[in-house]
UniProtKB/TrEMBL annotation:
Pfam families: Prenyltrans. This is Protein farnesyltransferase subunit beta. Catalyzes the transfer of a farnesyl moiety from farnesyl diphosphate to a cysteine at the fourth position from the C-terminus of several proteins. The beta subunit is responsible for peptide-binding. Keywords: Metal-binding, Prenyltransferase, Repeat, Transferase, Zinc. Heterodimer of FTA and FTB. One of its GO terms (molecular function) is zinc ion binding. Its EC number is 2.5.1.58. Its cofactor is Zn(2+). It catalyses: L-cysteinyl-[protein] + (2E,6E)-farnesyl diphosphate = S-(2E,6E)-farnesyl-L-cysteinyl-[protein] + diphosphate. Belongs to the protein prenyltransferase subunit beta family. One of its GO terms (cellular component) is protein farnesyltransferase complex. Binds 1 zinc ion per subunit. CDD domains: FTase. It comes from Daucus carota subsp. sativus (Carrot).
């Protein structure tokens, strides 16, 4: 009889599941008092690990590494999620360092004098938004940044990561996200981005990094958030996207990034955050299903889809070119009017935090994910991908971001306190700050930036 051999991935999956279930069994057999302790967020230890990480970069941030703005973002955002902040001196150093990464022609490089890059530009802008305040926010040269974004724009609609660099969904997201949060997003930047993202949605339902590649959680978050920001989200096949997303949560409670791969703590945000966005778009998914049923029945052409959507829904999701007819508020000089923004309040992330009609029920098992994050990813100071791996700042940032998404997933207002049942473990010790799920910055810091850059409220 032929021998059945496991592939390397199947073998690794088996090992991971054994380790995870051993942790869960061990936990289940602990006395309640110890369970209680084990379920806590090791808040002080995390702050210590994060602050030491930033201090290690300071005073001169002079290590030779193209990742430094990312390290700043992962660390500062994690500290903000934990409801804390760095001292004035460290804050000043971080702002000065990021300023030195700013290119004279716009955008941020990985270090002073390095080539400006969209990923480090996103990391630098989100770091400065997270720090907040006059000095930090006004250090961003928005005029030059806009010119940098235009230079990165390709004629196919997508963006290049850097001069002569690769075009992918990450580049689209980082460009559109910074343009949006800095209030410099216009029609020229948006043109054809939606077509590019659409060409990356795969037969599985998720979104790939580029056309023809495999659907992946990181790119799915980037593609979905981009489509929301450019008001074209209802052009995606949201039903199959939802289907793909929810099946990425493993028996372990954590998410995998793609089909048949291993769970990993960082997907708590990439997949969990994308699910939170979809949850607030539920109304559009229903509308799409309704419209496509009708289209099937009537054998009508696809233009009926946008025509059938109510004006409000087109404003929410956008559906170019019709979105412009119904919802655009150009001032005649081609400038977008402040009221031409996505109606975030309908996504559950409005400036007031009101959710409008969005559904309240999360699409995935939020408690199971919190259990994975707290018991399998959390170490005493920092978070890791999975048991057996080392902690790092990237996983710390995205495990905490995912944890926050889970805790607020049942809340009817983004900035209202979650119900105790939504927070796994010790409520007062574990509760994090809420994030704006489109940009992944703490909601309060987003609101401050929005006011500072005079976005509509
Ligand atoms: C904002 C921004 C820059 C977002 C980046 C999004 C992101 C995390 C993309 C993931 C890239 C990718 C294909 C990882 C696969 O790694 P792997 O093969 O090691 O992991 P896997 O087995 O889990 O797929
Ligand atoms: Zn990871």
């Amino acid at each position: 009889m032929a021998e059945t051999r496991l592939t390397k991935t199947q073998e690794d999956q088996w090992i991971t599941q054994s380790q995870v279930f051993q942790i869960y069994n061990h936990f289940d057999n602990l006395p309640p008092a110890q369970q209680h302790l084990r379920l806590q967020l090791f808040r002080d230890e995390h702050i210590d690990y994060l602050t030491k990480g930033l201090r290690h970069l300071a005073p001169s941030f002079c290590v030779l590494d193209a990742n430094r703005p990312w390290l700043c973002y992962w660390i500062l955002h994690s500290i903000a999620l934990l409801g804390d902040s760095v001292d004035d001196e460290l804050e000043d150093r971080a702002i000065d360092f990021l300023d030195r990464c700013q290119d004279k022609n716009g955008g941020y490089g990985g270090g002073p004098g390095q080539l400006p890059h969209l990923a480090t530009t996103y990391a630098a802008v989100n770091s400065l938004v997270t720090l907040g305040g006059q000095k930090s926010l006004s250090s961003i040269n928005r005029g030059n940044l806009y010119l940098f974004l235009l230079r990165m724009k390709d004629k196919n609609g997508g963006f290049r990561m850097h001069d002569g660099g690769e075009i992918d969904v990450r580049a689209c997201y980082t460009a559109i996200s910074v343009a949006s949060i800095l209030n410099i997003l216009d029609d020229e930047l948006i043109e054809n981005v939606g077509n590019y993202i659409l060409s990356c949605q795969t037969y599985e339902g998720g979104i790939a990094g580029e056309p023809g590649s495999e659907a992946h959680g990181g790119y799915t978050f980037c593609g979905l958030a981009t489509m929301i920001l450019i008001k074209e989200v209802n052009r995606l096949d949201l039903a199959s996207l939802t289907d793909w997303l929810v099946f990425r949560q493993g028996l372990e409670g954590g998410f995998q990034g793609r089909t048949n791969k291993l769970v990993d703590g960082c997907y708590s945000f990439w997949q969990g955050g994308a699910s939170a966005l979809i949850q607030r778009l539920h109304m559009i998914v229903d509308e799409q299903a309704f419209v496509s049923d009708e289209v099937d029945e009537n054998d009508a052409d696809s233009s009926q889809t946008s025509a059938d959507l109510s004006e409000e829904e087109q404003c929410l999701g956008g559906n170019s070119p019709h979105a412009d007819e119904h919802c655009s508020h150009e001032d005649g000089a081609g400038q977008r009017n402040p009221s031409d923004q996505v109606k975030f309040e309908r996504l559950g992330v409005g400036s007031t935090g009101r959710r409008g009609n969005a559904e309240t029920e999360p699409l995935f098992h939020c408690i199971e994910l919190q259990r994975y994050i707290l018991l399998c990813s959390q170490v005493e100071g920092g978070f890791r991908d999975k048991p057996g791996k080392y902690r790092d700042h990237y996983h710390t940032c995205y495990c905490l971001s995912g944890l926050s998404v889970c805790q607020y997933s049942w809340s009817s207002n983004v900035d209202s306190q979650p119900l105790p049942a939504a927070v796994f473990g010790n409520y007062s010790k574990n509760l994090l700050e809420p994030v704006h799920p489109v940009y992944n910055v703490v909601f309060e810091r987003y609101k401050e930036a929005r006011e500072f850059f005079m976005l509509p409220s």
